[in-house]
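From the methods appendix. Each design record in this collection lists the tokenized structure first, followed by the designed amino acid sequence. Records were kept in a plain field format so they could be parsed without special tools. The example shown here is representative of the layout used throughout.

RECORD:
FOLD TOKENS (168 positions):
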């Protein structure tokens, strides 16, 4: 498990398989690899609360384009005090409760992550990934953000995240 404000799974052969400059990447071209990439990118790619590896992770993970430049500028603004840093403690109550593979093929994946607090569902985040240069990358081309959010989402249809499914 990788710790930050959420425990993140590691699965042998699915990822993350490579550690570079305080961030981890290298996910398998499988549904499991796409799910793991989504979890890791959501936690460690948080622009409002960057840590030592956030910039490098986002440079690696986000496809080139205007949104990538804006995302990296957000990280710079927080690191340089232009924007207020969101403390990790603000996220401490957020739980990853499950996931749903919305779509998947050899070239792209859409993964929805079920979020909650105190074990109750509170919403979800959806990310679109593409397989490029031997890793899952965030494809922000279709939105103003690299993930979209929904509130009041039912757990029906999600694979629930339990210690057993996380490999504990």
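DESIGN:
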């Amino acid at each position: 498990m990788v710790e930050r404000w959420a425990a993140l799974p590691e699965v042998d052969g699915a990822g993350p398989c490579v550690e570079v400059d305080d961030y981890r990447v290298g996910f398998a071209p499988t549904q499991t690899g796409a799910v793991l990439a989504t979890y890791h990118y959501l936690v460690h790619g948080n622009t409002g609360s960057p840590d030592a590896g956030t910039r490098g992770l986002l440079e690696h993970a986000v496809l080139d384009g205007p949104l990538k430049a804006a995302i990296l500028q957000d990280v710079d603004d927080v690191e340089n005090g232009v924007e207020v840093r969101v403390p990790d403690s603000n996220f401490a109550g957020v739980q990853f409760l499950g996931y749903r593979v919305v779509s998947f093929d050899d070239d792209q994946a859409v993964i929805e992550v079920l979020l909650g607090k105190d074990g109750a569902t509170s919403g979800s985040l959806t990310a679109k990934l593409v397989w490029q240069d031997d890793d899952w990358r965030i494809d922000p081309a279709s939105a103003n953000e690299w993930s979209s959010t929904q509130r009041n989402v039912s757990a029906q249809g999600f694979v629930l995240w339990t210690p057993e499914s996380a490999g504990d």
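APPENDIX NOTE: The beta strands are 18-20, 23-25, 94-104, 108-117, 120-132, 135-138, 147-151, 159-160.
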